Amino acid sequence: MAYTQTTGRLARPRQSVTPADGVRSEAPTPCWHTARWAGPARPGGPRAAERLLRTTTGKPSGPAQFHAARVLLHTGNPHRTAVWCDELRLRAPSSAWAAGFGALRSEALLQLGETAAAEHEAAAAIAREAACAHPTGLLPWSTAVLAESLIAQGRHEEAAAHLDRPAAAITWSGLPWLRARGRLHLARGRPRDALTLFSRAARLARRHGAGVLPYLSWRGDTAEALLALGRADRARTLLAEELAASAPGPRDRGIALRLLAATEEPGRRLPVLSRAATELRRCKDHVELAQVLAECARTLDTLGEPATAAVFHRRAADLGAVRA
Question: pTM for this one?
């Protein structure tokens, strides 16, 4: 599919041609990852993706729209993704595509810190998946989003109940489920168990993940577990690799910078945390931004600036209250 940057219009592809976004328009059902590409990590970019969505408004939604919405999400536009997916699932040609757009919307809401809404959307996507005549491969993804929304709300036992149902196979399509189990171990204070799962995820990502949407920040996950185990040097190396990669969107970069700040001496943390806050404001992830501001407050306390630290504490608390 050729995105015409000068006119702002979209050149229509023949149905049998694989467009530039990497999705074949005749693909029968959605799946967790829908595209592979060569070159830049952001095929078409968010402007081109949204232009496609506007151009096809009113028409049945399918592979091209699904991938365009995915590009929006992973280039730091979860709010726009959630809005579009709400419309796209209404125009979905089948229950499988409705489940796909619902699952993508749930991930967008999770990235916005709207954990209760993300929980609801993911559960609905799972129900739609169960009603599909043919499996779509969405179940591990939707289950992972549901579990992560529960983890974010502190409902660890409920998350475990969903994740204890084994995925059919730990392959690339099951990677979100594997990653969510690692996140649950971290939340429960079991970083060694989390590291084991993140290492498995890393092997899958290295084997299958190059040039695939969505981008998976396996280095950031692994670094977080390593930090909890006191292995800051190895964590720092992985985070530097993550930040040097071309694919991470602003949310992944913001999280990586927050973790990287933890490997620095207190006197060197604030500039790194400032960069993290800038990235997270871009993607409007208020939950992650609140964590960064709280870390700023702790750092300022350590540096003997309690008055300024109190300001950051209040800002972090306000963001937490907004998203509670």
Answer: 0.84
